[in-house]
């Protein structure tokens, strides 16, 4: 599984970091998403999919 985020369009809602904290963090100043790994283990797949579904700005993508 590969993950990508568009930091330019992140609105800092933080749902991703709450849903999959081993994959997503947030910048301390602006709360913009930080991708901790672009290749999460399969055990994180459900959490990452939930983060995709819950991102209000739709800036998280799963890549083939
Ligand atoms: S849920 Fe989406 S908008 Fe919110 S911090 Fe994460 S990537 Fe940014």
TrEMBL record:
Instruction: Extract one GO molecular function annotation from the record.
Output: iron ion binding
Keyword presence, Endoplasmic reticulum: no
Q: Which InterPro entries does this entry report, sorted A to Z?
A: 3Fe4S_ferredoxin (IPR001080), 4Fe4S_Fe-S-bd (IPR017896), Fe-S_cluster_ET (IPR051269)
Annotated ranges, domain 4Fe-4S ferredoxin-type: 1-29
What keywords are annotated for this sequence in UniProt?
Answer: 3Fe-4S, Electron transport, Iron, Iron-sulfur, Metal-binding, Transport
Cofactor(s) named in the record: [3Fe-4S] cluster
Q: Does the keyword Iron-sulfur apply?
A: yes
Task: State the protein's purpose.
Answer: Ferredoxins are iron-sulfur proteins that transfer electrons in a wide variety of metabolic reactions.
**What is the designated name of this protein?**
Ferredoxin
Organism from which the protein derives: Paractinoplanes atraurantiacus
Taxonomic classification: Bacteria, Bacillati, Actinomycetota, Actinomycetes, Micromonosporales
